[in-house]
Write a structure and sequence with these properties.
Length: about 500
Amino acid sequence: MATPETAVAALPAAPGRGPRDDAVPRIHDLLLRYGAEAASVRCAGPALRHWLDAPPPEGTGACVCYADTGRAWVAAGSPLAPDPLQARAAARFVAAAREAGRRACFFAVERRLPGLRSLAIGEQPAFAPAEWLSSGARSGRIREQLRRSRRKGVRVRRVPAADLREGTPLRTAVERIAAGWAAARRMEPLGFLVALDPFRRPGEHRYYVAERDGEPVAFLSAVPLYARRGWLVEDLLRSAAAPNGTTEQLLVAFAREAGDSAVFTLGLAPLSSGGHLPAWQRAARALARPFYDFAGIRAFKERLHPTRWEPVWLAFPGDGPAALHVGDALAAFAGGSPARIALRTFLRRPAGPPWLISVMLVGWTAALGALAAAGRPEPLGLDRAQLGLWALFDALLAALLFGAARRPRPGRLALAAGLALADGVLYLHHLAGAAPPDARLTPLRAIAAASPLAAAAALAWAALLAARLRPAGVSRRSRRRRPPPGRCG
């Protein structure tokens, strides 16, 4: 499912269980008749498992595509079944999961499932192609973006699936764009509904490539939503060499050829709403911003002037807390423990160390401020004025680190590493001339001295990562003007 220009990375689709060969025709038939949701496009692929219900009257004849996290079955959208049988199919799937010792939930359903609780997880933009081409795509901003890309020599063409066979020059170029996009993401790759798999079922896709001077710089793939007479723009990949307006040019080319369709969508903009967001969603957006720009994704899709916004839900049984099922969905995207992928992000992505250190520094700075306000500087071997200055310094450093996590530039990270090193060295120098502390305070002072030095080492590592991942040949000024290479779909 979809992320735009500031997106998380996606894993290549990994084999799950896949449907049995004799079940493939049945699943394809159900997709043709009932595959209306964006999540349903993943159902025919090998990455998910498939629960096939018994035919009526014993069962519903439905299919549910799901990921097994080890603790839960997380379904990709609603059951593929007729509307009158959806509630019964969902209940039977939940019962089958419980028999297997699993919880169950349905991620990215586009309407509430009767008998289940629903939690709004975001909205997706819907575009009526003919209407959008005559109104939204003719807005001043989009017209200007189109002029920019055409002035830069960008040309868009539809390409047949045969041109993207493995080993062909175009396939190699698209894979290079995808690899560059994934390397530039702030998070480790995710799977489930955002697994990068543009070449599965190639005969059913529509492919478009944007070229500049004969070289591919962006790529769009769309897959049909059969039961809705619509399309999901599943992948929209840009290289760092793609000028402003390339994304819009690809979408306009696609919309012109999809004019007889009812709708196309760019997929979910998570944790977004045209109205008021719950407090926990606002907090999640703020904390995750260095790794996943929820607000930026919403803003990108809003700038395209969609015909309307449609709510998307997480549906789950009413006998457990919503947080448990949110955790199950996160585990499905992580392909295992969310904590494990978070740790890999901190170790391998330059945004990780500054974000973690800034969060820890907030608590430490608050403790320093409280000691200074209470007139209790003795535990750290400082006087009250020194303690207040240290708290102020750390507050400024925390702000710098959070900014560095949002935009992990090598220079900014190197500056933060230098300041953290100076913090630790100055405190060590002060302790060297101070009277020996009470033995009970020695561990506290050791932690206070060692922590800035460890932070400096972690930030220096992040600066090296940022320098290594920075796109070659792209100036600092051009990075400010143009959004980073991204994916939509």
